[in-house]
Sequence to fold (542 residues):
Amino acid sequence: MPQKSSKPRYIFITGGVVSSLGKGLASASIAVLLQARGYKVRLRKLDPYLNVDPGTMSPFQHGEVYVTEDGGETDLDLGHYERFTGVEARKSDNVTTGRIYSNLIMKERRGDYLGGTVQVIPHVTDLIKEFIQSDAGGADFVLCEIGGTVGDIEGQPFLEAIRQIGYKLGKDRALYVHLTLVPYLAAAKELKTKPTQHSVKELRTIGLQPNILLCRSERAIPKSDRQKIALFCNVSEDDVFEARDAETIYEVPLSYHKQGVDEQILKHFELPVAKDVPLKNWQNIVSKIAKTTKVTHVAIVGKYTGLKDAYKSLIEAVYHAGIANDTQVELHWVDARLQDIKKLKDVQGIIVPGGFGEEGVAGKLAAARFARENNIPYLGICFGMQMAVLEAARNLAGIKDASSTEFGPTPNPVVGLMTEWVKEGSKEKRSSKGDLGGTMRLGSYPCVIKKGTLAYEVYGSTKIEERHRHRYEVNANYIPQLEKTGMVFSGMSPDGKLPEIVEIPEHPWFVGVQFHPEFKSTIFNPHPLFSGFVGAAKKVKL
Ligand code: GLN
Fold:
């Protein structure tokens, strides 16, 4: 039995040399192993940028905004955490420099620091420490990933804060993991350890000595190189691990375990190391993935197709649904701005995902129409649902100028700004002149499903809860006209005012949802909407 402690232990994960090494996956994988050993985990992300949250950041730059149950607009790494551990992430599990400073300045104005000079150390670092150590929800381990790369100016207060926590709590309650790169130089035919040495040197200058090194590498790192890294980085040889590129991300926890990462972590904390670790579910899923050969072709018609991170949870959800349906899914990326409808002839299913703004709308409407007219399974997510409804309004209901107020004033606002709605009994209000940050319908909301519909068949329930992130809604005043076209409003908000799910019963599989089901899918629990969609797509003959 693991030794429980009322006080959490902290594992800090930093990254060096280059960005995009996969710190999020490394953190999630370590958490999985601790969980398998019976410990309760919580994962947090500290982002050094100055935005208050990623909600206002362009997906082109920053990738997807991951939405939590409690309505947080957070970094996409929280998606990895939740998908791997099944632990629901919360708004309070992601903090940025912007958030820290906005709290700090509010406190300063209120007079909390009256008489004092407000400084990065100790005031900013104290707020960071408070964030890290608050509200751990009874976790045995809190894993904190620090965004960015060691050496970045913005990251320094965060590194200082985690140094202070380690200093205060001591080795028994704090551990530092550093993820680094060991590149292979083809010309020299050699793996290079110097970048890792420099990165650790950088950490040590600010008083942080990593305990564990995870070395990303395309190839096996020979023992002699690991010895070299250990010696120059002042780390035991047993604590230098290889983080090789994997066939699937679901192999990563197994690879860490095989090398003894979790064992070394437990030894550091002087916790018992059980020999038997229940990881059968992970082994089974990896071998199931390896055996999946059939391919289903699905198009994603969006605006951010150039940066796949913009659709991270969506890609994962489709992947999970594929594995559940014994098929790999090959994604065909269609840039909605190019209106490249020809490409849709080669696919068995079409997804129009979430999106913002008018650019690319014509392409998305054309995709919804193509799917509807050619009996190709269609899944419209949020904006994709609004597009399906606008398409039906224009081309079936004869409302030629049907539009969304998102694109400007319109005589027929079939999709319009939601100015008022009810959340947990209290009214939320919005106006078109309000702030853009954090003011959408965000987080989990209930939806009531009509029996006898495809949505009911998919969910097997009349009551569901899904996560939202949007400002506009399908206008319920147009329901009677839209229903005449054969479209069914199969899911509504409990007060019956907000359309949540639409479908076309005459079509083999055509569903639009106002929410984002992709945030709740995991490899062990594939989302029923995606499974249903891929299942239908798989049957389409090309
Ligand atoms: N732009 C739309 C809205 O705000 C859809 C948002 C989305 O797809 N997440 O309502």
Notes: The pocket of glutamine is lined by residues 354-356, 382-383, 406, 469-472 (CB under 6 Å). The chain has 17 helices and 25 strands.
